[in-house]
Amino acid sequence: MELEFLKSLVVIFGVSALVVFLLHRLNIPSIVGFLVAGIIIGPYGIGLVKDTHSVEVLAEIGVVLLLFTIGIEFSMARLVRMKKTVLGGGGIQVALTIGLSAAAAYVATGQAGTSIFVGFLVALSSTAIVLKMLADSGETDSPHGRMMVGILIFQDLCVVPLMLLIPALSGDGISITDVFIKMAKAAAIIAAVLLSAKWIVPGLLHQIVRTRSRELFITAIILLCLGIALLTSKFGLSLALGAFLAGLIISESEYAHQATSDILPFKDSFIGMFFVSVGMLMNASYMSGNFTIIAVAVTCIFALKVVTGLSAATAIGSPLRTALHAGLGLAQIGEFSFVLAVAGKASGLITEDFYQIFLSSSVITMIATPFVLKAAPSISAWITSRHMLKKVARVKRISEAEGFPRKRQGHVIIVGFGLNGRNLARVLRKTEIPYVTLEMNSDTVRDMKKKGEPIYYGDGTSKEILHKLGIERAKLLVIAISDPASTRRITAIARKENPDIYIVVRTRYLSEVDELRELGANEIIPEEFETSIEMFSRVLHKYNVPRNIIADYIENIRKDSYGALRSVDLQHKRLAERHEFLKDIETETYLIKEGSHARGHSIKELHLRTEAGVTIIAVQRGEEVHQNPSPDFVLKAGDIMLLIGNKTDINKAMEYFESDKILTARYHR
């Protein structure tokens, strides 16, 4: 048995690797490769893997670890801020989907219980696929990403009541008391888990970390993840929701980043098993024999779920484009629907034939999801630009845009009021530079308006909204949002509407730099490389590389779109280690360049102590270091001076070296 299971694993990983590699060459997402691999090797394919139970167990672990890492990226405060999306958006989406699906099914079957159960099946979307796609594209924190995550959280919370209602729908009756007790237990376990995030887990992790045992730390993290997931499942909640709550607990501690890095290798290994296991459910021969009815079912599912997702997002104030994007992303059937379908079949709510049709349709919607999500930005942008929808959107924008700035000139437009947008706005306000901010979170806009912030609600991908902000008269545009597709579109529109505007873009990854530059961005700031710059500048400073040389490296790297980071060649050697007795005194180094004003002057002629209050205690020329150089020592290009003084005086000296004052200092009294 053990050897058979090992053989199955070898087959799964081998075929998956081959299929994913081949499809990657065709630029097809890896999720599709795993699903296709499952179809090929499964019991309905060539039958290389017949016992799917063990695979399904590993698949569950993959989903648990995925939701755990997503939970770590969140926080309790962030989840509370999303309550409108979770309760409002999620509640509307689930209720609408169940209602419309049940109505359509009743027309076809005439059976109320079965029709409502069909609504249950269609209402849930795939948490694993959607969150994996959002995480891979860096869009989890984008407006549409937050909307999808919020609705998915609510759907997972609905698993308990949906399962409890199956006996009532099948005619077996249901005890209201039993339902109340189970719901109370579920609420109690959620509350207990969340409270432990503040009172128990941080202290426990602190004691574990103090042992300095990495193995113990990893074991504890996995125990928390799987243990809480198992605990919540015992109370009727899904494993996925329990894992997400476990991640939230870890996110409240200072060990979140270390936990994520330790769990990632396990997650990436197991999550592929989930998609393979889903592919194994596909009965290709049954699908080909019932192609027409399955095609109709898939079309109806997509259409209905796009409409309900769009309606839910719009109802809580999301712009039309974001709502469409969220609706398209949630248009598939969820993995927990398979569990509901099995329970429904056992209760007699659906027949074996219906179960097979549902299974085939669900897997097809999952396979299509990566392609739909990839095309969602273009589809949503195209639909919102159509004449009829544009009229509706314009009416809404006019009412929302009341109070937009009038006749501003030479101002800065900030798109996005997250951390970067807030910091920039604070600096601009203090320096009295005129600016306006555009934000898609209506609650943020309302709160900041009360504080006097020049902030307005709107979608930056709308040409009309940008014109209301004065894009044609603005001097500079800063795009600071976590939405790569919207960032590209805003850049293109702004460049077209104002060829002279200076566009600064914040992006997450270096890979997006070239495309953004082609679209018209003047400066692109990738977060991952700005972190690298800060790190290497501090390291070089500790090794006494001259400050102006560090500044040159940074400037050249940014001018070269960060390409220089791949081949930084430090040509200047550091000075000798600072003496112990200088450890509490500020020292700095400065390189005399070929065109420097200090070149050719003696130390006495610089009058550096008089002008800046610092002293030259050493000069490095080539391999030779001149300690305590005499006042008549003449400085040459390539010399590195070691300066000593307090921080204020050293900064003054740096400004002095770059100024024209040195030219007159020679004739100083």
Written overview of the protein:
- The structure is a single chain.
- The chain is an alpha/beta fold.
- It folds into four domains: 53-384, Na+/H+ antiporter like fold (Up-down Bundle); 396-521, NAD(P)-binding Rossmann-like Domain (Rossmann fold, 3-Layer(aba) Sandwich), CATH 3.40.50; 529-567; 582-665, 2-Layer Sandwich (Alpha-Beta Plaits), CATH 3.30.70.1450.
- The protein contains 32 helices and ten strands.
- The strands form two sheets. Strands 3-2-1-4-5-6 form a six-stranded parallel β-sheet, sandwiched between helices. The chain has a four-stranded antiparallel β-sheet with strand order 7-10-8-9.
- Helix 23 links the parallel strand 2 (435-439) and strand 3.
- The longest helix has 33 residues, at 352-384.
- The protein is elongated and about 100 Å long.
- The N and C termini lie far apart (96 Å).
